[in-house]
Design brief:
Bound molecules: threonylcarbamoyladenylate, magnesium ion
Radius of gyration: 19 Å
Helix content: 25-40%
Structural class: alpha/beta
Strand content: 15-25%
Shape: globular
Largest sheet: 11 strands, mixed
Number of helices: 10
Distance between the termini: 32 Å
Order of helices and strands: EHEEHEHHEEHEHEEEHEEHEEHEH
Number of strands: 15
Length: 315
């Protein structure tokens, strides 16, 4: 099993040796390795059992460092970074050749972000290289938001988990790209579209699901627990399915004496986002066959929550 601790120097030494370390961020835990080393990056794909067509996000301590790895930073990206970095926002920008092709699956853009977590920022500042880090879960499964989640699934394959507690946003970063003057959202996530639009004007949302591996990040079935997930009206679904074998994942309503998880009794979307992946993992361990759930209001982080629920329920 992996050691779990708060020792930044230990994490640094392991990473400098080419090993992988799980790192906390405000969104989810990442499985980190030296982004400039193809050997370390290859280990990431290996440990995650991730197909090499699915590129990785590179983590930097600030925008100055980002400049070292991308050809140019559009004005809108600068403005967004000044408002939201460090934070749950990833930019797709044309990479410099120093970033190995394996990181970007051969694409000429690299996903780059500055995570908002004090331990990880200190670690990033202490390193001579940026960290490539996908979410620290086996490919296709629910992302981890606590050190125990990482330990459960990847603990046997990595030496160290840097313990930064529970991720406070709880849902992966929002991914945006830039075309001319347009900002395009490719993955809804921990920074809402409303907040991006306040700063950058109207954005184009292109988060459609595809099964074509050449369009990374938009795989239809993703973020999925092993149990089947059905999204709909929970009261109606309960009439239809055998109530002994189902668990209920609701936004605010208490479905009584059964296997259940309430995302936010006080109807807070942000709290629901923070609890979503713990809820899916918890229900996945229960002796049930089905998880019945419902969409949340489609505003703020609700869009990202609904995106994850739809993908979790996709065949
Ligand atoms: O919040 C997050 O973004 C977390 C933390 C650890 O930073 N990371 C994360 O990484 O969610 P991952 O690998 O699980 O998801 C990154 C997504 C993938 O779906 C990938 O296809 C997409 O970003 N992506 C990365 N680089 C890309 C690129 N150059 N072009 C298009 N999509 C890209
Ligand atoms: Mg992931």
């Amino acid at each position: 099993m992996a050691e779990i601790g708060k020792d930044i120097n230990k994490a640094k030494r392991l990473l400098e040796r080419g090993e992988l370390v799980a790192i906390p961020t405000e969104t989810v835990y990442g499985l980190a390795g030296n982004a400039l080393s193809s050997a370390s990056v290859a280990k990431i794909f290996d440990v995650k059992e991730r197909p090499q067509f699915d590129p990785l996000i590179v983590h930097v301590p600030d925008l100055i460092h980002a400049e070292k790895y991308v050809v140019s930073i559009p004005e809108k990206a600068r403005v967004l970074a000044s408002h939201f970095w460090p934070g749950p926002l990833t930019f797709l920008l044309t990479k410099k050749s120093i970033i190995p092709d394996l990181v970007t699956s051969g694409l000429d853009t690299v996903g780059i972000r500055c995570p908002d977590h004090s331990l990880t920022r200190e670690l990033l500042r202490s390193l001579e290289f940026p960290l490539a880090a996908p979410s620290a879960n086996p490919f296709g499964y629910v992302s981890p938001t606590k050190p125990e989640h990482v330990q459960d699934q990847l603990g046997a394959k990595i030496p160290y988990i840097l313990d930064g507690g529970t991720c406070h946003v709880g849902i992966e970063s929002t991914i945006v790209g830039f075309e001319g003057d347009d900002v395009i959202v490719y993955r809804t996530g921990g920074l809402s579209i409303e907040r991006i639009e306040e700063v950058a004007g109207r954005v184009i949302v292109q988060t459609h699901s595809v099964s074509n591996p050449k369009t990374p990040g938009q795989l239809k079935s993703h973020y999925a627990p092993r149990k089947k997930v059905i999204v709909g009206n929970i009261d109606e679904l309960l009439l239809k399915y055998d109530t002994n074998t189902v668990g209920v994942l609701s936004f605010t309503k208490d479905y009584g004496n059964r296997v259940k998880f309430i995302l936010s009794p006080s109807a807070s979307i942000d709290e629901a986002a923070q609890h979503l992946f713990t809820a899916l993992r918890t229900l996945d361990k229960e002796p049930i066959d089905l998880i019945l759930t419902e969409l949340v209001p489609n505003a703020g982080l609700g869009r990202a929550i609904n995106d994850r629920l739809r993908r979790a329920s996709a065949e």
